[in-house]
Amino acid sequence: GRLRALLDDLEGAMSDFERAVTLSPDDPLAYGARAGMHLIEQRFALATTDLERAVALDPEDPALVGDLAY
């Protein structure tokens, strides 16, 4: 997903991150990555939902907590 995003394939990147969440629903980094795509696409409510889920899964991750606070 990240490589596709860097290559400006935002649709492909989002597809990759959606698949990551589907395959690993307990992985906070999958939700954090998808939240980043939502932010790029200015879908702030969806980004917040994903970041809240990520923090619920790993409340000790300072990057996820910081992203949610931002």
Give a nutshell description of this structure.
This protein has helices at residues 2-6, 10-23, 28-40, 44-57, 62-69.
What does this structure look like?
The chain has 70 residues and is mainly alpha-helical. It is built from five helices and no strands. The chain has helices at 2-6, 10-23, 28-40, 44-57, 62-69. α2 runs antiparallel to α3 (28-40), α3 (28-40) packs antiparallel against α4 (44-57) and α4 packs antiparallel against α5. The radius of gyration is 11 Å and the shape is globular. The mean pLDDT is 96.
Mean pLDDT: 96
Largest sheet properties: none
Determine the fraction of residues in helical runs and give it as a percent range: over 70%
Structural class, from secondary structure content?
A: mainly alpha
Rg, Cα atoms, Å: 11 Å
Number of alpha- plus pi-helical segments: 5
Question: What would the principal axes of the Cα set say about the shape?
Answer: globular
Poorly predicted runs of 5 or more residues? none
Q: Tell how many strands the DSSP assignment holds.
A: 0
Distance between the termini: 22 Å
Order of SSEs: HHHHH
* DSSP strand content: under 5%
Task: Describe the secondary structure blueprint for this structure.
Elements: H1 2-6, H2 10-23, H3 28-40, H4 44-57, H5 62-69
Helix pairs in contact: 2-3, 3-4, 4-5
Core attributes:
0% strand; globular
